[in-house]
Amino acid sequence: MKKKQASFIEQMYQDNHEGFLRFLLHKTRNREDALDILQEAFQKLMNRDGLCDMENPRAYLYRTATNIIIDRQRKGQHHIKYIREVTGDAMTFPASDVIPPDRHVAARQELDAVYRALDFLPEKCRRAFLMHREQHMTYGIIAENLQVSVSMVEKYIIQTLKHLRRKLK
C-alpha cells in the first residue's frame, strides 16, 4: 500500500471510527458483529483503487458497511432455510419467539427515538451510557476508559436516564 494511501486510511480511521462503530452497534445490536463489520469495511476501503481521489470516502465506508450487514442477514436467512430443508422442517421455532410485525416496527421506532435522544447529550454522558447498556461494562471500567471517577460515571448515567425520560414521554 502506498504511503499516502496508508496515512489517508489511518486518518479516516481516527476521524470516523467512533461514530462509525456507534452506527454499526445501532444497526447490528451486537458489539462483536459491529467490530467485524468495521474491520471488513475498512479492509474493502483499503483495497479499493483510487482511494485518495474518491469524492466521498466516508459515504463509501458507510455504504460498504450497510451492504455487509445486508449480506450477513441474507446468509442468515439462507442458513435457516437450509436447516429446515435438511431436517425436513422438523425443527420448529416456538411461536413465542416470533414477534408480530407491528410490534417489531414499534420496538424499532422506540429504539430509534432513544438513539436520537442520546445525540443531544454531552459526549461523555452518551459514551458512559452506551458502554454500560450495550457493552455491559462496569462503572469502574467505564471510569477508566473515560478517565473520570466512578462517581462521575454514576452522574453521567443518572443524567442520561433523566434526559431519556424527558425526551421519550
What does this structure look like?
76% of the residues lie in helices and 0% in strands. By secondary structure, the chain is mainly alpha-helical. The protein has two domains: 1-94, Rna Polymerase Sigma Factor, Chain: A (Orthogonal Bundle); 99-169, Winged helix-like DNA-binding domain superfamily/Winged helix DNA-binding domain (Arc Repressor Mutant, subunit A). α6 (139-146) crosses α7 (150-167). The longest helix has 30 residues, at 57-86. The protein is globular.
How are the elements arranged and paired?
Blueprint: H1 3-28, H2 31-47, H3 57-86, H4 101-118, H5 123-133, H6 139-146, H7 150-167
Shape by Cα distribution: globular
Span between N and C termini? Answer: 52 Å
Order of helices and strands: HHHHHHH
Tell me the CATH architecture of the largest domain.
Answer: Orthogonal Bundle
- Number of discrete helical segments: 7
- Whole-angstrom Rg: 20 Å
Number of domains: 2
Low-confidence stretches: none
Mean pLDDT, all residues: 81
CATH top level of the largest domain?
Mainly Alpha
Task: Using the coordinates shown, work out and report the CATH topology of the largest domain.
Answer: Rna Polymerase Sigma Factor, Chain: A
Strand content: under 5%
Proportion in helices? over 70%
Tell me about the largest β-sheet: none
How many individual β-strands? 0
Secondary structure class reads: mainly alpha
